[in-house]
Amino acid sequence: PQDLERYLAGRTLILLSNREPYEHVRSEDASAEDGIALRRPPGGLVSALDPTMQRTRGTWVAWGSGSADRETAGEDGRLMVPPECPSYTLRRVWLDDADVEGYYLGFANSALWPLCHLLLQHYETRAEHWARYHAVNARFADAVAEEVARAPGDAVVWIQDYHFAAAPAMVRERLAATGQKAFIHQFWHIPFPPPDILRLLPTEAQQGVLRGMLGNDLLEFHTERYAMNFMDCVAALVPDVQMRREHRRIHFEGREVHVGAFPISIDVARYEGLARRAEAARRAEQLRVRYGANGATLGVSVDRIDYTKGIPERLRALDQLFEEAPEMRECLTFLVVATPSRSELASYKALEDEVLASVAAINARWSTPEWTPIVLFHENIGAEELAAIYRAGDLCLVSSLQDGMNLVAKEFVACNVDEQGVLVLSRLTGAAEEIEGAVLINPFNVDGVVAGLREAIAMPQAQRRARMRAMRARLRRATIFDWLASILARVDELAPPAAEPLPR
Ligand code: ADQ
Predict the structure, then answer these.
(1) Which of 223, 280, 365, 437 is positioned for an S-S bond with 467, CB 3.0–4.6 A?
(2) Superkingdom of the source (predicted)?
(3) Interhelix angle 446-458/311-324, nearest 10 degrees
């Protein structure tokens, strides 16, 4: 990853994301100083960006939540991180309960999230939610503009995700008002819907989202399809724009907005390394003996409990499989890793109850004295254990109803070091457009999922190995560091040349 810095020579990166890379939390732990411990949220994005931020000494702006976060930052919300080697600035922005309710749980997660995933039955719109989202985006834009003013050299502002659709135009406005310049770009981690769906937003919010995003110089999506959907929405809903679709370029308010596909990935070497440890081999064997004894197939799935992931649909398919294929009983055990998520929202809580109830019902229906069809790990699992679970799996089922990319599919491939596993993957994920060698399914079609599972279980060893090898070879050539490099290279191409390299 070293050579990433060359793209940033002479420029300072100002990142904006909802989640922060370092979080302070109250802790009873003996090692916690003054009862406060440091937590590094898991996730590929932080692990890819943190080293780059450390080496280029940029600023990361994010939501500071909780009193321990407040106590450890200065008056202005700033602190240097990481604590053991302070090298870049974390700027925390404070939100109150009404902000979280309207901006995060409200507009971001009850309007944009379901609409972008085409799951209209979960869509809810309230004027107050949009108003808060707009106000909170403005507050983050203020913080970003202040950090641009402090940054040495030219600034590159990089905004993450659907929490900040309105922010890019706001940052641009603030910089223009103070005569500052920066290259502004945004990565959108979830799908982008076609115009008929975006039309379901009230006009003010719909215009706020599209015009906000058009404040970017470059917009990055996982796939060409999402990028095209965005261009279609702009063409249909924003007057006075010209576009060159073939060049992925929109002419808006006298500037060019570039759009592109940059499929995200994982730290492949890290996952593979975790899965190759002797401890992971031992744990995988233990799981296989415990749950996949006597040659039974061990299936695995890993998700946050979210209605986009198709967990009830997956359970329905398993139930139907045991019903129609008695020979599968006692021959297939499924390890379902499902961690609660966004539980403050009623629809997520209801889904969690539904998942628990249907696992219990399937187990009550099919269990025998020697066999339990579904084993539920209803918690967040550490990376080491997760790698062992992936390694143990004969098959991994990803059944998302719609998913921007889906990193679980890539993690399973990276961890399947014994090259005996089959990936059964929903066509409705970004990953399905990139990964060749998976058994593709449509989770809405339960019969098709059952057929896909039967195909995976029956697949001859040689074919499994050949497919898994091909998927692994391809994944190694497209890691999260390649993703980051391709985005920074594109920024380097589009941004005005830096005045001169910065001393680091
Ligand atoms: P998510 O919707 O969170 O991400 P995904 O890409 O699958 O979906 O990433 C989930 C991550 O959480 C994976 O790294 C997985 O290992 C981890 N995880 C899930 N359940 C877990 C558990 N029980 N214990 C431990 N870890 C667990 C959003 C978009 C995706 C897009 C990513 C990145 O919705 O489509 O791929 O951002 O852009």
Answers:
(1) 437
(2) Bacteria
(3) 70
